[in-house]
Amino acid sequence: MDGEQRVRGDGAPRWWRQGPPWWKGAGDEGRAARWPWPSTLLLTLFVLAGSNYAARQQAERADLDAFARVLLVIGAGLLLWRHRRPVLVVFGTAAAAMLYLGAGYPYGPVFLAVALACFNAIVAGHRKAAWTALGMLWAGHVLVAHWLYRWLPPSGDPAAPWGQEGGIAAWVVAIVAVSELARTRRDQWARDRAERARAAQRRADEERLRIARELHDVLAHSISVINVQAGVGLALLDTDPEQARTALTTIKAASKEALGEVRQVLDTLRTPGDAPRAPAPGLDRLPELVSQAAGAGLTVELEGSAPGLPPGADLAAFRIVQEALTNVVRHSGSRHARVRLDHDGGALRLRIDDDGPATGTDAGGSGNGLAGMRERAAALGGTIEAGPRPDGGFRVLAVLPLKVKAKEDDR
Fold first, then answer.
1. Given 3-state DSSP classes, what are the helix, strand and coil percentages for the chain, each rounded to the nearest 5?
2. Are 37 and 77 in contact (CB under 8 A)?
3. Is the pTM higher than 0.70?
């Protein structure tokens, strides 16, 4: 498992693609709310100790005194605000380093604070400020080392060799290059995190729509049957008790089936990742669907046979037929419907016809029902056509591919 997490796709470790945990939010408001006390304290101690060592190695430079140590503490201590005030910190550390060098103190880790401040400013997006501060520091060093050295301590020191300026310029370029690389990588990590968040949101939206479609199809069909049979039972309760009993039996069976399918959907929600306890309905249950429609007073002619389909396509085909028959029961004056199945050319064709006429403004079905059918078909790469027939009635024509191309997982 760990190996799979470390190496995927292009072979890069996951932290390189997503960013190390401590890096997330660097330079952002959430990161700025935290004071970097430990790192600042350690860096200050390192700068002081390193400068003491450098003073022993560079006897020709001025000795470290209280003023020098104050400049070193200020330059390193400013890094405490590097996440909150990156521009101020990069100019402040550069100014402290410039004063330190202008006073003739030995070269040493004083530049480390400038490098870290520049790095943080560039990563935070303040590139011009960082470049300007480094440029001013380099220009100030040139002035001190080649012109102002005559009037600045230590006394009697010669001008610095020009080759030294090339080394300092290379040092500046290296800092900028590393900082820009880090900024680019951090931006990439931020884009990757945003894309993963959008992908997770898309998956959540798709799952919510899938559950809404499933519940709509289950409840709309069963409640339509229950509504029709309840009306029959009420009408025949006094004149034909036996027929009323049959209607009540149909209501009981339809409600039991609806409760079972709703429970199956809810069980899937409660136990993510587990297989459902009962198989999802498919076209093999069309005879049962025809029987239920008959209980609602609708005669259904079934023509053709269904080929073997993947589970998702099988469920979608069943729900499309179910919703189309439910719409006939609810919105058509016809008590006769025809369901035809054809498959050729790698596609399954479902055609559901009724002879009409429509009994209300929602001819052909409600907006949610037709939208659900179209969403199911589109998810499989298929199409839905629904509308009145030229000779009267209503037709639903669905074309679904027999081979469903699996979606790639969002990364």
1. 65, 10, 25
2. no
3. no
